[in-house]
Design goal:
Blueprint: H1 3-13, E1 21-22, E2 28-29, H2 41-51, H3 54-60, E3 62-67, E4 87-91, H4 95-108, E5 116-119, H5 132-136, H6 141-157, E6 162-163, H7 187-202, E7 215-219, H8 238-245, H9 247-254, E8 259-262, E9 266-267, E10 270-271, H10 276-286, E11 292-294, H11 302-305, H12 312-322, E12 327-328, H13 332-342, H14 348-364, H15 378-381, H16 385-398, E13 400-404, E14 416-420, H17 446-453, E15 459-463, H18 476-484, E16 488-494, H19 513-523, E17 529-534, E18 550-553, H20 563-570, E19 628-630, E20 639-641, E21 646-654, E22 660-669, E23 681-690, E24 695-702, H21 704-707, E25 710-711, E26 717-718, E27 722-728, E28 731-738
Parallel strand pairs: 3-4, 3-12, 4-5, 5-6, 7-8, 8-11, 14-15, 14-16, 16-17, 17-18, 20-28
Antiparallel strand pairs: 1-2, 9-10, 13-18, 19-21, 21-24, 22-23, 22-27, 25-26, 27-28
The structure holds beta-D-glucopyranose (BGC).
Amino acid sequence: MDSRRLGFVLGVVLGLCPSVAMQADGSEDEKPLYKDATAPVERRVDDLLRRMTLEEKVMQVNQYSLGRNNNENNAGAVARVPAEIGSVIYYDQDPALRNDFQRKAVEQTRLGIPVLFGHDVIHGFRTITPIPLAQSCSWNPELVTQVCAQSALEASRAGVDWTFSPMIDVAHDPRWGRVAEGYGEDPYATGVYAAAAVRGYQGDTLSAEGSLAACLKHFVGYGASEAGRDYVYTEISRPTMWNLYLPPYEAGVRAGAATLMSSFNDVSGTPSSASHFLMTEVLKERWGHRGFVVSDWDAVRQLINQGVAADGREAALKAFNAGLDMDMMDDLYQRHLPDLVNKGLVPMERLDDAVRRVLRIKFEMGLFENPYTKEMKREKRILQPEGLRLAEQMAEQSIVLLKNENAVLPLERASTIALIGPLAKDTENLLGSWFAYGEAKDVCPIDRALSQEFEGRADILYAQGCGMEGDDRSGFAEAVGVARRADVVVLCLGEKRRWSGENAVWGSISLPEIQEDLLAEVKKAGKPVVLVLSNGRPLDLSRMEPLADAIVEIWQPGVVGGKPLAGVLSGRVNPSGRLSVTFPRSVAQIPIYYNRRPAARKGTQGRYLDMSSEPLYEFGAGLSFTTYDYGEISLPKETLRKGEEMTVEVRVSNSGPRDGMETVMWFVSDPVATLSRPVKELKHFEKKLIKAGEEAVYRFTVNPQRDLSYRDAEGNLVLEAGDYYLQVKDKRVKFTLID
Ligand code: BGC
């Protein structure tokens, strides 16, 4: 018997559960069907719904916060939370507060409907894993699933039922700090990761012990926020909506995501949180989603700020009728829905539909049977070995080696290493944004990891050099001195954890001048410099790149901190990460992304006159300590019918000295279409281990409907006969699609 069920049985034995349930019309029922765990969910929902009063229904579509809110972007909590509430954002690491509150809901309210406890478990709960942007550079969705499953287990043992994750907003602007929370610039890859995360959080069934309900966010287009600013408007045409922003959501919905969160942004004049088209026509009617949509924090009230509602009442009316089922935090549904329903402005069927969706998830999660969380000792449920092992594996695979001139890495011959920089001993910033209950003391700093890794092999000298920001250059001389005494410099620079994430917008994506200057100064020592970067967004490295002999992007790795980096530096880990997002040369190039449409003039025309038009590092960039040789793409036939499939393959041999994991990315291009298509689009990827001296065959089964089509402005799938190209690295083959 699992813990939640145990709690329920105990409650019954102690006589705490009401044995009768009153119907809305006042009559009583000995054994309400909705309490019968053997009855089908839909019948239980119907039964409960018909017993509910208008006020009880309205309470189910509200969410407040419970406990101390540690999110600095969101202030203000509701002082007294009524036990009839549909959901709370749960701010505690221990289940006691949950269980107390749940007891009130289950045992002291008329119908005993359990509360759903949500929390932002974005990249771990206490065991903080690499940020999602880093995870996407692993190109290992299976590992994403495993990491999310571990996060779910840890969070659920603390009393959480529902995570506001994954964040699957395709983003083309690194000034937008929330690029850290997503999976990069590609809609296909983001969709694959969305499904992987949903599978990890939710497991096989929502009711399984240790699973969380997932929430795809932010629906939709938030990543297109103009000029990278947070909370602002977006301008998204319907074809772009259908082909770029919606596909990851469709993938997440198909994977069974229980919920979605509406986004803050307006889309071409209609805020997502008031968009009937997005929430009702696309999500519920077209995709058949049966879970519910929660607003983002205060997003219903913000419809007033966004200029589409005069007051709270109108905001509630617009959001609710558009299909936004649950109101996070702004209390407007609770205040206004009863009257709006009574006046006939909100149809009762709409309210019933929203309540039905919320109840459905609660029944599917087994909350009616198992409302409580077993109270295990904290040390038995946090920072567990399996979670740490997976976090480390993920961090190893998400590191991207961006540059390695003269094979300076791995550091096999160095006997003295100068470890320099403000992040060399740091613990806090390596956690990244949205670190939930992560603690700096859990993080293994880079200096400790290096000392352990190189023990008996190399001496480590240390100098901080400078702080993360500011003007204090007094440590530069010591840093240069240390560099002179060493064979190689490992310089650890980057961003503070709050420099990315929500409400962390930058007009410049360079590192602070003091950090750039430290690199320039240290370089004067004449030793090879390995630049280690920890950051939550693509950076402008244009001034730093020429000075670094090697560049290792470790992102924000979470609790495992410097260990995976130490493995890369020593050669124990062969880097296998590849960028899921483009690194521009400068802010002036933004937006810049690989899946752009072709221009009217080719060659040198239309290019910047004063700078390069090419990015510094492209989508997919990433080096290894070994060499991979790609064969030609083998095509079984040159003509394919629309209804057929074909499997293409490419052989990759590892001709270098080390085992390595290589990701093959398959791109498709459609050079002539009714609607101009991107120059290339990722359609499949696979990562495999190839031992030194061996080869592997990578395959891609092309399904024309799925892989060669696009959507028109109405969202119809368009599949056109004609020539197509398949591309892997620099290999390209043409084939023809016929009717
Ligand atoms: C963020 C969401 C988050 C919510 C609850 C909002 O400010 O945009 O991503 O889930 O707060 O913390």
